[in-house]
Amino acid sequence: MARIKTGIFGLDQLIEGGVRDNTAIVIVGSSGTGKTTFAMQFLMHGIENGEQGLYVSMEESPEQLMKEAEMLGWDMKKHYEKSLFFIHLKGKNFKKMIDEQIPQLVKARSDYDIKTRVVIDPMTPVIWATEDKLQQRELIGKLFYTLKELGVVVATVEEHSRPGEMIGEDVLLPVYLADGAINLEYYPIGGAFNRTLKIIKMRGTHHGEGVYPYIFARGAGAIIRTSSSEAVKTAEQGEDFGPIFDEAIKTAEFIKAPESIIVKLKKMKETWTYKYSPEEALQVIFDSYGLK
User: Fold this and answer.
1) pLDDT (tens digit, 9 = 90+) per residue, 87-118?
2) What domains lie within the chain, and their CATH numbers?
3) What secondary structure does DSSP assign to the chain, as a single string?
């Protein structure tokens, strides 16, 4: 079965090379885990490779989101209203939107023979729109079902789990109704990899079952460590990582890697502020694209 690459470095290696088409994936996590970054990275990877992106925002305006993306190293403005489109639904009647507006949008786009990635960020206001569990299920189920006609849907969900819970009760419905679910956790203890990812489910896919640390690198996005065999190499005092990045860029250029990858490596070099070597993160990026 053909797989669609997420563009999230390290993730595709854990899910048989990517996600299945016309599926809905939820990214669940508390504040600070980087759910929006994951969603943006997924969307921008598609756009950089000739696809279109639809960003359904339940809170922030398109202008705010594009500013955030710019700080992360992604130029959304360049693609705005060309291959990237926004729907801002803050304060809207979600039932009317899901019953009427979204189906009309999907129908209007049905004649376009081009893949579209969809992001819903965050889905939490839809869940909170009603306390009735049956209505919640109908709203979420119809939203997923309708938007999956366009392509792969990634929805972020804010989690508020209690101590001892594997996953919060308030996000059980979207996790159940989605085709895949990824849980992000943040441990504010300092150190190299203080955020971790766990794949809760991925239908029709043999997926990794471990707990995988990840970091964020400006210009590249999330980078997931898929192997626990090597420890992170801590930097010596005043160590210069420039030569390591230069070697990676030189290698990428020599093997004719996609220009988008070379741009990401250069941005990482300019903005790398971690106190440990970037070797492992660079290797994950190369592995994600099958580069040797």
Assistant:
1) 888 767 788 888 888 888 888 777 777 789 99
2) 11-226 (3.40.50.300), 230-292 (no CATH)
3) ---B----BTHHHHTTTSBPSS-EEEEEE-TTS-HHHHHHHHHHHHHHTT-EEEEEESSS-HHHHHHHHHHHT---GGGBTTTEEEEE-TT--HHHIIIIIHHHHHHHHTT--S-EEEEEE--HHHHHT-S-HHHHHHHHHHHHHHHTTTS-EEEEEE--PPTT-SS-GGGHHHHHHSSEEEEEEE--S-SS--EEEEEEEETT-----S-EEEEEETTTEEEE----SS---BPPTT---HHHHHHHHHHHHHTT--HHHHHHHHHHHHH---SB-SHHHHHHHHHHTT--
